[in-house]
Amino acid sequence: MQYDLQYFDEVEIDINKAKTWYKQQKEGLEVEFAIAIQKTIERIVDKPQIFAVRYKNVRMAHPKVFPYNVHFYIDEVNTTVVITAIIHSKRNWKVARKRT
User: Fold this and answer.
1) N or C: lower Cβ tally within 10 Å for the chain?
2) How far apart are CA 54 and CA 72, in angstroms?
3) At what angle do helices 29-46 and 9-25 cross, to 10 degrees?
4) Which pLDDT band, with edges at 50, 70 and 90, does 96 fall under?
5) pLDDT > 70 in the chain, percent
6) What pLDDT, in 10s, does the model give residues 36-74?
7) How far from each other are the two terminal CA atoms of the chain, in whole angstroms?
8) Is 79 helix (H, G, I), strand (E, B) or coil?
9) CATH number of the domain that 58 lies in?
10) Which residue range forms the structural domain that includes residue 89?
11) Interior CA angle at 79 toward 9 and 92, to 5°?
12) Is residue 14 a contact partner of residue 37, using CB atoms and an 8 Å limit?
């Protein structure tokens, strides 16, 4: 079953900050980051249950290349995946936890 996708407004800010940083490191790297995040989100929407619950009812998925965590929960009633944060894996996870 394919799930619908929703995300908190802060997720766009998370992505834009990361893309800006990667662009400053190397031209085009921000595009690679965006593609990696998109592929991760596609995996989540396709089979969200394969990811373990990490806190509360929130699960995390990781892109294969970049050190980021996609925090999300599953709304089974509405068959929706809700992304709450996309943050660097070294950043304090409590930042994402406050959003739930």
Assistant:
1) N
2) 10
3) 140
4) low
5) 90
6) 999 999 999 999 999 999 988 999 999 999 999 999 999
7) 25
8) coil
9) 3.30.2310.20
10) 4-97
11) 40
12) no
